[in-house]
């Protein structure tokens, strides 16, 4: 199995985070996550050959999944106990979709760690399950780009305006239920292998056993 996909015997955690650090940890994992990849083509008519396709590269990926926000936590299917209010989460997703700003989508322990925008969001309410909100989400991967003015394109200068870094590494991190130093490093630093840097900065607070961290503990993060 490709390293891009998680070990199916291990539970996964799906999070969505904006550039301000506001993060949504989906409480109920979907039954599946769909990732669609296409290649872009341009078709030309060539005499004596007919249509010929010229590939331009990979199209923007689409990632989609369906799940629900339960009104009451049940640890038989919820990833954690203190789950968010379903309607507040729907409102936040709608706000993110309207803002059209890129978000960080992570699926741990897989290597899915990409910037996305929400392209589609549908919600469903079931009369026999009051308070629960079911949803379908589709994301499109975000591609950074540079903007140049017409004057610059005409030789008026080589200055380019690039988009700023969307997710600066936080100065501190509050430990959540189920966290480990490896998971915290993966979420905030992009790779779990940097867990030792976090431990070395917080060894006095954590103690000799790097596995003994607890919810609510404040950790200093490396730059």
Structural account:
The chain is an alpha+beta fold and 223 residues long. It contains 4 helices and 13 strands. The protein has helices spanning 86-99, 150-156, 181-189, 195-206, and strands at residues 13-17, 23-25, 33-36, 39-46, 50-58, 62-69, 103-108, 112-124, 133-141, 146-147, 161-162, 172-174, 218-220. Strands 2-1-7-8-9-6-3 form a 7-stranded antiparallel beta sheet. Helix 3 crosses helix 4 (195-206). The longest helix is centred in the middle third of the chain and has 14 residues, at 86-99. The two termini are 33 Å apart. Residues 1-9 and 156-165 have low confidence and may be disordered.
What secondary-structure arrangement, pairings included, does this model have?
Elements (H helix, E strand, L loop, with lengths): L12 E5 L5 E3 L7 E4 L2 E8 L3 E9 L3 E8 L16 H14 L3 E6 L3 E13 L8 E9 L4 E2 L2 H7 L4 E2 L9 E3 L6 H9 L5 H12 L11 E3 L3
Antiparallel strand pairs: 1-2, 1-7, 3-6, 4-5, 6-9, 7-8, 8-9, 10-11, 12-13
Helix pairs in contact: 3-4
In helices, the fraction of residues equals 10-25%
Number of helices: 4
Number of E-state strands: 13
- Rounded average pLDDT: 79
Q: Determine the strand fraction and express it as a percent band.
A: 25-35%
Largest sheet: 7 strands, antiparallel
The spatial strand order of the largest sheet comes to 2-1-7-8-9-6-3
List SSEs in N-to-C order.
EEEEEEHEEEEHEEHHE
Q: How far apart lie the N and C ends?
A: 33 Å
Overall 3D shape: globular
Poorly predicted sequence stretches spanning 5 or more consecutive residues: 1-9, 156-165
Q: What structural class results from the helix and strand content?
A: alpha+beta
Gyration radius, rounded: 22 Å
